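Sample entry follows:

:::
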Amino acid sequence: MTLNLDEFDAILLDLDGTVYHEEHSLPGAVDLIQRLQIQKRRFACLTNSTSSPSRLAQRLDRMGVTLAIESIFTACAAAVEYILGRWTTPRVFSLATEGAHEMLDGKVVWVERADQPCDVVMVGVPTSVYATEPRQRIALQLLREQRQTVLLGMCADRVYPSPRGLEFGSGALTLMMAYAADATPVYTGKPEPIFFQELCRRLNVEPRRCVLIGDNLESDIGGARRLGMTAWLTLTGITRREDLANLVPGRQPDGVIDDLRSLL
């Protein structure tokens, strides 16, 4: 079975594990993206990164992948869209990243103390510059004392890979805060429908007319198929071929490739 990209109105490429690994592009990634650009195809790169699209664009450029910021959609960008779309002048306490701060600065009121009114506590990964222990205690107090405050996790990832090995993800910190504050978190990253719906809105395309290529069975394949997208698995990331053996038919990808060279 082969994948014909011409059958779709938009191509969605996961980044980490599909286009790159750490600081290196994966086989076929640069050539495929360049081909899509030359053909003027509608496409986007997506990721559960808690960084901003502009910072990821700089990272990709170092790997030889030149992408417009508008072609990159991150969990961080989805969280920013959620916040700016829900409140007129959002009052935000951040446990997130510098990238998120840059995207929201000047558009929100930053909360810094536990006695200030707060609309949303935004959570990134525990290693974020704003997720220090003192700030986590302020966030906990805000969530426990102002019950209307929304606990917003950028994504529900338990862990993520880094050069040091597995790191605690945004979902791990968000769930810790939720348990301590007795709060129900909202997530905006993959595999949440809100993430894919916003991306399709930006591309002006129906989900059923999209194909997603990714390496994660839960956040990529499961999230895309839930909205009616075609979803293909690449074996360059965290999923191995043997992982597919015990999956029920409804959770199987529509196809499997070894790497992006198969699409050239």
